[in-house]
C-alpha cells in the first residue's frame, strides 16, 4: 500500500535532490541518515514507479519513492 508522506529535501552542489527528513501524517519524523542509491524503479508491493531512494533510517534500509513531485513509501496492509 502506498503511504504518501511529507519530506524535507535539499539540493546538493551537483544539483541532486536528496531527502533529509521523512514526516508521517501522525506527526512523527525520522532523519534520513544516508541515501545509499538513487534509481528509477517500480515498487512491487504498492504498484507504481518513480525515482527510488534507498535510505538508511534508524539503522535500517528503507525505500522512499518520488513520483510526480509526491513522496511515498511502501507500507504493510493493515
Question: How would you portray this structure in words?
Answer:
- This protein is an all-beta fold.
- The chain has one domain.
- The protein is about 0% helix and about 70% strand.
- It contains no helices and 6 strands.
- The chain has a 6-stranded antiparallel barrel.
- The radius of gyration is 12 Å and the shape is globular.
- The chain starts with a strand and ends with a strand.
- The model has no long low-confidence stretch (mean pLDDT about 90).
Distance between the termini: 9 Å
- What is the average per-residue confidence, as pLDDT, rounded to a whole number? 92
Total beta strands = 6
Percent in strands = over 45%
Helix content: under 10%
Q: What order do the SSEs take from the amino end to the carboxyl end, as H and E?
A: EEEEEE
Strand line-up in the sheet with most strands: 1-2-3-4-5-6
Shape: globular
- In this structure, how is the largest beta sheet organized? 6 strands, antiparallel, barrel
Low-confidence stretches: none
- Structural class call reads mainly beta
What gyration radius follows from the Cα positions, in whole Å?
Answer: 12 Å
Number of domains: 1
Number of helices: 0
